[in-house]
Design a protein that fits this description.
The complex is a heterodimer of chains A (about 350) and B (about 160). Chain A has helices at about 50-60, 90-115, 145-155, 220-240, 300-310, 320-330; strands at about 5-15, 25-30, 35-40, 70, 125, 130-135, 135-145, 160-165, 185-195, 205-215, 270-275. With about 350 residues, chain A is α+β, with helices and mostly antiparallel strands. Chain B has helices spanning about 25-30, 85-95, 105-115, 125-130, 140-155; strands spanning about 1-10, 10-20, 50-55, 55-60, 70-75. Chain B has 2 domains: about 1-80, Roll (Ubiquitin-like (UB roll)), CATH 3.10.20; about 85-155, [2Fe-2S]-binding domain (DNA polymerase, domain 1, Orthogonal Bundle). The radius of gyration of chain B is 15 Å and the shape is globular. Chain B is α+β, with helices and mostly antiparallel strands. Chain B has a 5-stranded mixed sheet with strand order 2-1-5-3-4, with helices on both faces. The chains are: A alpha+beta (about 350), B alpha+beta (about 160). The complex binds FE2/S2 (inorganic) cluster (FES) (2 copies). One FE2/S2 (inorganic) cluster binds near residues 102, 137 and 138 of chain B. One FE2/S2 (inorganic) cluster binds near residues 41, 44 and 61 of chain B.
Amino acid sequence: MAIHHGRGFASINYPIGMNLGGDPSQALVHSTPDGKFKVTLSSIDLGQGIKSVGRQLAAETLGVPVEDVFVDTADSDTGPHDMGSFASRGTHRMGNAIIRAATEARAQLLEAAAEELEVDASDLVTDGRGNIHVRGAPSRSISVEATATAAQFNQGRTLAGRGIFLVPLSEVDSVTGEMTPVSSFAHAALIIDLTVDDETGEVEVQNINSAYEVGRALNPRLVEQQLIGGAWMGVSHALYETTEPNYPERSHGPIDFNHYLQPGPGDTVPHHISVLERPAPDAPFGGKGPGEMCANPVLPAIANAVFNAVGVECDSLPITPEKVLRGIRANGGARPQGRPGA
Amino acid sequence: MKSPVTFRLNGSETAVFVDSGANLLDVLRRGCGDLSPKYGCGQGSCGACTVLIGGEPHVSCLVLAETVAGRSVETTGGLSNGPDLHPLQRAFIEGFAAQCGYCTPGMLMSAKALLDRNPSPTRSEVEEAISGNLCRCTGYEPIIDAILEAAKQRGAA
Ligand code: FES
Ligand code: FES
């Protein structure tokens, strides 16, 4: 009876969004009379950070401080249409829509300021701190707040923008069957080190080393947060979570968190992440977003590492101690595969 | 049948009428309007509803509201001092220790109970203290780090 070490590798090309009939997202941006900007979306933020990233993208495009932008993820009755938060499409699709909406709103902001300053809008620039001034003449300036107030109360003008980003339906080539279901790919490669106890069948992940290519990391701390949490979920799916553990009766299965297993705070695994930035040309400021790809490569890497450790190929998830032990028995014992060069 | 229950909620004398058999979580959320403790499972296994009773962490979904009569109850709603955030809250924000945030109020209260009795815990003591709090999003690592950081900040202050 022994503890066997295993190492497994997996890599992934992960499509951003999907296109099975067109894949649109819309955004609306408008200013309040005191020069704050609201971004209205129908996408949902359930912790992945689209509110933070949308806020950054809108502020950067409008040329105003990030503190002056607020994102309302409304609801699908009152907000602009959106396909939804899925397929890792949020940053890419909604981000592009936000940039378009903010670009239109910025043009109106500059026109309203131009009217107040009696200059040409094309001569105006924003300083990113809440002011608009004539290029090369910072003293000829007006604040965003005063511009918004003047637009609303004197000029009778809205400072608002509409944006949509649509990846049109891709035609299928009738000869080759080829089509373009997605617009861009993110990538990851991941190495798992783990141990397998050939007496209990227990698998313990020791170490994760990963590289994720996400375009530009628009908010590096949020990217890291997604990657750490998502990889944890990958470990959880690979080794723990199932609604159908091998109980004799389905009705004996888990009905609560006490029996639906997940790794707890004592089971965290050191995870060393390298974020690679290759800004994507069609993505908002180059950012594709980490999305579901956080979790995906972890599962095959763990399966490969278990095979490397004891020679058991598990073709169903989760890789429970029982499946590992059955596999070892079927093989007539543990069969460590060794490591080239080790 | 309803009966009056008086207790201290985040330092303020509070009186509510509660149905006999009502659980504390329900009374805090609906009776007192304190929405900071969250309902996750209603059966004591997720920790989202954790509050402190007499300084000790309890899952409020399993506490009979009448049993807190005369006692002190603390929730995340009372953690900050006006605009001044508690060191734990600051560490959670700075350490990106919340994603959806559903587990956060329970995590904060379990962590507060720990730091109140053990100002400089080890990593495994932190893991133990939050072992009854489930988190789906963060992988726990940032939460553990934030609690250790808050302990450090409090020690330095
Ligand atoms: S709601 Fe109380 S433990 Fe889950
Ligand atoms: S942050 Fe979502 S459950 Fe912990």
